[in-house]
Design brief:
The chain has about 190 residues and is of the alpha/beta class. The protein has eight helices and five strands, in the order βαβαααβαβααβα. The protein binds adenosine-5'-diphosphate.
Length: about 190
Amino acid sequence: MLNIIISGAPGSGKGTQSDLIVEKYTLKHLSTGDLLRKEMAEKSELGQMVESYISRGELVPDNMIIDILLKHIENQAEDSNGIILDGFPRTVAQAEALEIMLKKLDKEISVLIDVKVDENELIKRLIMRGQTSGRCDDKLETIKKRLDVYHTLTEPVNEFYKNSGKYISIDGMGTIAEIFDRISQTIDSKR
Ligand code: ADP
């Protein structure tokens, strides 16, 4: 079983790399951002509740996102070589909840891969993405807020996994293929 957390600031390329990892290692991709955007597009009750947080660049409250993840992780964990979590956990409370969830399923995280990208490059990429993504949170003011939230609430999750020896950081500057190569080497060393 290979259960990976892919972490990194907004714009670090987590989603792009996740797609490549999923294909190479036959994992299930669980992206909380994608799940939330699907709910918003469907205008579900949940989608309407989360929209205001997302468009402000804030995190959706822990209890809400933990419920959503719980619903999906049980199904996903059944019939694959493992899962890749993209966008979760984003707070230490979420990491703690995840550990409890996985324990109940008799599973554990193999590695957290932290994709590191310079702040200027992040902003450049997100502004560029905003021109085509149609995402309500890809505009400068919201991008700055998301980076802020990342540093205060999400970076401490790295410490959480450092303490259990599962943290690995990867240089996220370069071409998509170069970065994927670095990530693949890390995963292969963990198998
Ligand atoms: P990015 O990494 O580019 O910020 P995501 O697609 O992962 O994009 O997330 C978009 C938004 O969805 C976040 O800014 C946040 O509002 C919400 N979100 C996603 N995952 C979580 C989470 N685990 N906890 C709280 N909010 C989340």
